[in-house]
Structure formats: structure tokens, C-alpha cells
Amino acid sequence: MDMKVYPNPLDCDASAPQIQSELDDPVQKALIKAIEGGLPLTARPYALIGERLGICEAEVIGRIQLLFDNDLIKRMGVVVRHGQLGYKANAMVVWDIPDERVGEIGRCFGRFPFVTLCYQRPRCLPQWRYNLFTMIHGRGHDEVRARIETMADHCALQDKQYEVLFSRRCFKQRGARYVSLDGEPGQSE
Q1: Is residue 181 part of a domain?
Q2: Which of the 8 DSSP states describes residue 11?
Q3: Which of 29, 73, 168, 187 is the 20 to 30 A CA-CA neighbour of 59?
Q4: pLDDT digit string (tens) for 114-173?
């Protein structure tokens, strides 16, 4: 694999335009489009993105930081293909937690490394009593069930009111898209 050597990331052109957070800035739109599909798998992904956009690495990093600072981006993460890593069982576990304990239990669940999502949703009574959702991954159904029992015991859930919804098929797995192919914001798929 050829390793591209990038210039010093601090060697930005002093005459470069001031970084803006507004989405009407074409460079900012192009940057969002460049990162929403994932970062390039290279030692210096921001340098490569900068090269593609005609800006330096430091400006890419500065623009992304500005998106965070202005709450236009909340987080950047990784989409993992669990099955390819040997995790064949995935389950959404829906929990009926007393409303006054949701924060406490959610924080407790979030400490487990095998919990990849944990969030609260409103109940839709009488059809749906569940208000806390967790995604659990394991190498098999038995491992997932054992992990759920561990969570319930560790987080002091005596009545253990929950349902386990195992995934049967994966249709799509990727991050959200916010800039359409023509560069207009708000045209997500």
C-alpha cells in the first residue's frame, strides 16, 4: 500500500477564508458530504479529506470542531458489521422501567461494553408499556440472554419486565446522510 506523505497539518495558507459554520458555505457543505459517508481508512483521514476539498488538514479539523461547537454535529461514530466479527445474535431488549428509575437504570446499562445503544422512548399505553431500549450483541442467542440476565441482576431489577427482540435480518446499516448528491441540505435518504 502506498503511503501518501502530507505536509505539516499546521501549514495552512494564512490567506485562507475564515471558517464558517453556516450550511450555505459551499466548503462546509462539501465537508459534511465528505464525512457523512465515513472517514477514509488511512493514517491521516482529515488530511486526505482536505486534499479532496482543496483545504489543509488543520482547516478540516477546525471546521469539524465548529460543527460540534454549534451543535450541528453531536457525535461521530463507527458502523460495525457485527456478523463479520462473529457476533451472530443481536437483540433489541425493551424494558418496562419505572419512570423515576429510567435515568439510573439507563446509566447502569450503559456501563456494559456489550450494550451498543441505550435510550428512552415514551410509552404508548395500553399497547406498548416499554420505555427503555437497549441493543445487545453476542456470538449466539444464549450469550445474549445471559448478558441480559447479568444486566438485570447487576442493575437491581427485581421484576425484570422486558422483551427480547432478536434480529432476523439486516436490511441497511450506515450512518445518516444529510447532504444530497446535489449538495442541498435536508434531502436525506
Answers
A1: no
A2: -
A3: 187
A4: 998 999 999 999 999 999 999 999 999 999 999 999 999 999 997 879 999 999 887 776
